[in-house]
Backbone:
């Protein structure tokens, strides 16, 4: 008997993909051509020095590429533990902090679980919560875009949230929470509270690590993509109670950190003075940019505690973003967040890049007609 070899129609194939996935869109970042000044992803404008890259090339040459890395990059785990003054058992290292966020989803969240997120916050969290089909409560900010700690604490308590996520300083606003505000949310929560400190190196409020001594439900999330300038290397880590880390180890991907990434991070940690110096330069850039923006007619700035800053102008944000891109300067349009319609976000660049951005902005603001809707 002849076997029916007709291919399955693609729609029949796609119906097997979970609706929670099909309803989402892919995470993409626009990269128009002709960009010389890239200030759209909160990266460090400073690459590693030539000298350090040369050193690393010899370290890479020693790497046994035919062998799997260890389950966790133990040398790096110990170095990070020393850097943060915690026990290595408290640390889980991942392939970027985004990857660890997906592990939270797998480890903590069943469909229907109550989850609390403030708004507006880094969009990946809402995506993971929706992929896991959780029961999401979002908490609007106060009028000045600051997270409303009281309302977050109340929402976490009322919904008995399994997970609440705070980002401080927050992306996209650049605003930090105080330790008291964070602790208020943590104290009100019987569930886990993730404190994403992606921009901690820039934060005058400092880290919330000390909360771990009093509250085993706190998880601190870090990345080496921002202050450390290693966005291309993909390294993030978690600091939490050792028992929590042990459970997360069961859900994580095997071998998620490669041997090259470990060597790179170790080299950067050995020269932490350079990281600190670059962080100071990025902070100075944000100060300069903020002051220059405040001096421009009709421009409003949200003062930031991170390496980027958001602002509005009298002209439509999308037209302004396009005009800046035509001039080779790439910034991010925040219009995807309903609260931040009309806002653009610019990251700290080198001095030359900051000047190029400010000059392009001034010219573009003179050329473009004001937003009729404003
Ligand atoms: N958390 C926040 C708040 C961020 O803004 C970003 C970068 N956009 C990340 C995490 C991503 O970090 P990583 O590069 O380690 O995945």
Residues:
């Amino acid at each position: 008997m002849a076997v029916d070899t007709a291919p399955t129609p693609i729609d029949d194939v796609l119906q097997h993909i979970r609706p929670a996935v099909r309803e989402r869109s892919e995470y993409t970042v626009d990269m128009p051509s002709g960009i010389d000044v890239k200030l759209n992803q909160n990266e460090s404008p400073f690459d590693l020095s030539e000298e350090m890259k040369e050193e690393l090339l010899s370290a890479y040459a020693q790497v046994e590429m035919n062998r799997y890395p260890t389950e966790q990059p133990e040398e790096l785990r110990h170095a990070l533990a020393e850097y943060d003054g915690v026990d290595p058992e408290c640390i889980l290292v991942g392939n970027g902090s985004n990857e660890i966020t997906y592990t939270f989803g797998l480890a903590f969240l069943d469909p229907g679980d109550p989850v609390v997120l403030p708004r507006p916050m880094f969009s990946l969290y809402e995506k993971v919560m929706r992929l896991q089909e959780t029961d999401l409560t979002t908490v609007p900010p106060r009028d000045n875009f600051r997270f409303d700690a009281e309302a977050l604490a109340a929402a976490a308590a009322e919904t008995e949230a399994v997970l609440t996520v705070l980002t401080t300083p927050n992306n996209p606003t650049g605003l930090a929470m105080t330790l008291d505000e964070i602790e208020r949310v943590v104290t009100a929560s019987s569930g886990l509270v993730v404190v994403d400190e992606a921009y901690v190196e820039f934060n005058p409020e400092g880290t919330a690590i000390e909360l771990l001594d009093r509250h085993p439900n706190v998880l601190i999330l870090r990345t080496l993509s921002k202050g450390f300038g290693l966005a291309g290397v993909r390294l993030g880590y978690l600091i939490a109670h050792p028992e929590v880390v042990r459970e997360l180890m069961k859900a994580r991907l095997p071998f998620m950190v490669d041997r090259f990434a470990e060597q790179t991070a170790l080299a950067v940690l050995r020269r932490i003075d350079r990281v600190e110096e670059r962080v100071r330069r990025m902070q100075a850039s944000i100060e300069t940019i903020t002051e220059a923006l405040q001096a421009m007619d009709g421009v409003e700035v949200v003062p930031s505690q991170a390496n980027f800053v958001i602002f509005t102008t009298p002209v439509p944000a999308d037209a302004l973003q396009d005009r800046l891109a035509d001039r080779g300067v790439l910034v991010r349009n925040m219009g995807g967040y309903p609260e931040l319609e009309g806002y653009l976000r610019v990251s700290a660049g080198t001095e030359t890049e900051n000047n190029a951005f400010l000059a392009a902005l001034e010219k573009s603001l003179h050329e473009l007609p004001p937003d009729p809707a404003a």
Observations:
- Residues 11-48+273-365 form a domain with the Aspartate Aminotransferase, domain 1 fold (CATH 3.90.1150.10).
